[in-house]
Design a protein that fits this description.
globular; DNA polymerase, domain 1
Length: 154
């Protein structure tokens, strides 16, 4: 099937197998490997991207379902060499260790902050419920998102 979509501000028109997941399309077809695949069952959240501004787990969305949509991946968060405030906050607050979950956490954080620019710790923890991190214990991830909210509100 032919699909057309905008990814990180760039338009794509591509032939895809109807069964291809959005995650595999991004990684294998477009070489946007920042979207990680951890489980293929929507449990871990490492594959989270923004689909029309909403965080979705791209391993459970078919590429054909995204036809006509606007997608932002982790590669689209920075503006050239300038990191997005969420990325800066993760760096400054040690919100990552191994880094595998980080792209999904950053994309989920972007959705959380788009819907609630001043979230409480409980709001952040609730928003992260679908994302697993096996390294950090979440403390610094939450702290990073709180710091990003401050940066983005100032």
């Amino acid at each position: 099937m032919q699909i057309s979509l905008t990814i990180n501000g760039k338009s794509y028109s591509q032939e895809v197998e109807p069964r291809t997941s959005l995650a595999h399309f991004l990684r294998d077809t477009l070489d946007l490997t920042g979207t990680h695949i951890g489980c293929d069952t929507s449990s871990c959240g490492a594959c989270t991207v923004l689909l029309d501004g909403k965080a979705v787990k791209s391993c459970t969305v078919l590429a054909v379902q995204a036809d006509g949509s606007e997608i932002t991946t982790i590669e689209g968060m920075a503006n050239g060499d300038q990191l997005h405030p969420i990325q800066e906050a993760f760096q400054e607050n040690h919100g990552l260790q191994c880094g595998f979950c980080t792209p999904g956490m950053v994309m989920t954080a972007a959705d959380i902050l788009a819907n609630n620019p001043n979230p409480s710790e409980a709001d952040i923890r609730h928003g992260l419920e679908g994302n697993f991190c096996r390294c950090t214990g979440y403390h610094n991830i939450v702290k990073s998102i709180q710091h990003a909210a401050e940066k983005m509100n100032s």
